[in-house]
Amino acid sequence: MIRLAVRAPVEAAEQVLAAVLELAPSGVEEVEGEGFVEYAVYGAPGELPELAVGEAEVGGVLVTVSGTEVPDDWAERWKRFHSPVLVGGRLWVRPPWEEPAVRPAVIDLVIDPGRAFGTGAHATTRLCLELLLEVELKGRSFCDLGCGSGVLSIAAAKLGAGPVTALDSDRLAVEATLGNARDNGVALEQVRRANLREESCPRADIVAANLMRPLLLRVAELMEDPPGALIVSGVLEHEADGVGEAFSPLVERRRLTSRGWTAALYRPSGT
Ligand code: SAH
């Protein structure tokens, strides 16, 4: 297995990410370093995007492309990328093998990513969690569209939301969400498979959708009863206005960006 990585200066993250996602639409690994960001895909030689190793231009930006043979113990090595994150000074999101939060006011969230997306380390997850902390959740119903590891649902439940519905088309995500909810001692009312291309999102006070642009546009199209607060991510900076318009009559109240990604909070106008 080869790991093909594109390293770009952090100031140019958005242009490079957009171009890399055209080459690898199903997603890339992101590694952040001092002043740079690296996007990587894995595959057998011949299955990978055609990028020559060395200096190259991607998305109009000068980047460094490297290809490395991935060692056999890669399943263990990837754990190194899942380091704990403290979000908004209030949520400590960590994998099970890291130490729990020590400060009593900080909520400890244990996420075993298994094979589902969402450890808290990804910019889009972190931004969604930051926006969740800005919304009143106590006693409010919550729906998580594309729950992955369940990180957003479990955070919402720990912050007092309920009932919580978590939906994902991927069986592994449903399993990971159920397992993670159990390990965190929270009860989620509904965790099930759903294809959000076909099924409209159930009515909830607060909805979170960390998906990508094409699916978000479909979710907007199918949405029958807009929530009181909608948190959206998985959107590149240049896509944010268009995605926001799709959710009209909801209006944008907050926008956060990190490493080329955007997350936004929408509410009905006048609220
Ligand atoms: N909510 C998590 C995971 C986001 S990743 C977090 O914020 O970290 C996006 C998730 O959407 C993935 O788990 C993926 O399986 C799911 N997904 C992709 N297409 C979908 C579809 N058509 N219907 C439902 N879920 C989908």
Cα Rg: 19 Å
Globally, the shape reads globular
What is the spatial order of strands in the main beta sheet? Answer: 11-10-9-12-13-15-14
* CATH architecture title of the largest domain: 3-Layer(aba) Sandwich
Helix content: 10-25%
Bound molecules: S-adenosyl-L-homocysteine
CATH fold-type name of the largest domain = Rossmann fold
Q: Percent of residues in beta strands?
A: 25-35%
The overall number of domains is 2
Order of helices and strands: EHEEEEHEEEHEHEHEEHEHEE
Instruction: Please give the CATH class of the largest domain.
Output: Alpha Beta
Low-confidence stretches: none
Count of DSSP-assigned helices: 7
In whole angstroms, the N-to-C terminal distance is 52 Å
Number of strands: 15
What does this protein structure show overall?
With 271 residues, this protein is of the alpha/beta class. It folds into 2 domains: 2-75; 124-268, Rossmann fold. It is built from 7 helices and 15 strands. The chain has helices at 13-23, 74-77, 123-132, 151-158, 171-183, 213-222, 240-246, and strands spanning 2-9, 29-32, 36-43, 54-58, 61-69, 85-87, 91-94, 107-110, 142-145, 164-168, 190-193, 206-210, 229-236, 250-258, 261-268. The strands form 3 sheets. Strands 11-10-9-12-13-15-14 form a 7-stranded mixed beta sheet, sandwiched between helices. Strands 2-3-1-5-4 form a 5-stranded antiparallel beta sheet. Strands 6-7-8 form a 3-stranded mixed beta sheet, with helices on one face. A hairpin with a 3-residue loop joins β2 (29-32) and β3. α3 packs parallel to α4 (151-158). The model has no long low-confidence stretch (mean pLDDT 91). Bound molecules: S-adenosyl-L-homocysteine. S-adenosyl-L-homocysteine binds next to α3 and α4.
